[in-house]
Specification:
The chain has a single domain, classed as Jelly Rolls (Sandwich). Helix content is about 5%, strand content about 50%. A hairpin with a 2-residue loop joins strand 7 and strand 8. It is mainly beta and about 200 residues long. Strands 1, 3, 4, 6, 11, 12, 13 and 15 form an 8-stranded antiparallel β-sheet that branches. Strands 2-5-14-7-8-9-10 form a 7-stranded antiparallel β-sheet, with no helix packed on it.
Length: about 200
């Protein structure tokens, strides 16, 4: 009986500790409701059977084209923001990048991206090497802190690139976007399997 109760309590604790998906969008074929565009150019994005593809244009965080934005949901504990980012051509430009950007009062304040820096592909923040063209990014926020993680294509476990202070406020938004691309030829980024999770620890 004691063993049965112990197993039951263990299962209950595991269920209680499970992450809760608050929002998901595969980006396949269409976008879910609730997204909005920042500086949209319809010629430079497409929702395909494989995900959302956006052309990387020259520019920076304050002039980025086709940033796809949505409000952060209410969450308990911590919030995990995940998306897979795939470069459809080899990045060539210094600081060519794509990933997740956090907005506060409509201004970019934090990013977790796959970026070309000094000829190498890295995850920023942290500048941790990530040479494959496809990575899954995972940003965990809450309690005034952040954890920036990633795993490259074919890997099972997330690697932590950086940790630090980051305050989330009501009205903050999250975006998937990319910039510092070349004017020519066209470089496209694919975003897929976007998810927001309430992380229970």
């Amino acid at each position: 009986m004691k063993l049965f109760l112990a197993v039951l309590l263990s299962c209950a604790a595991a269920i209680a500790a499970e992450d809760k998906a608050l929002f998901q969008d595969t980006f396949k074929g269409k976008l879910a409701e609730g997204w909005s565009w920042l500086r949209a150019d319809p010629a430079d994005w497409r929702a395909t059977a494989d995900g959302l593809e956006i052309r990387l244009r020259p520019g920076d965080a304050n002039s980025v084209k086709n940033a796809l934005v949505r409000p952060l949901p209410k969450f308990e504990g911590k919030l995990a923001i995940e998306v897979t980012v795939t470069s459809l051509s080899d990045p060539t430009e210094q600081y060519e990048q794509a990933g997740i950007t956090l907005y506060h009062e409509d201004k970019p304040v934090f990013k977790l991206v796959h970026e070309r820096v000094d000829g190498k592909l890295v995850v920023v923040p942290g500048k941790v090497a990530a040479e494959k063209l496809s990575v899954r990014l995972r940003l965990i926020v809450g309690g005034g802190r952040f954890i920036a993680q990633f795993r490259q294509e074919g890997e099972k476990e997330f690697q932590t690139a950086a940790k630090g202070d980051l305050v989330i406020a009501d009205g903050d938004k999250i975006s998937v976007q990319g910039y510092h691309g070349p004017a020519e030829p066209a470089h496209w980024i694919r975003f897929s399997d976007f998810v927001l999770k309430d992380v229970r620890e």
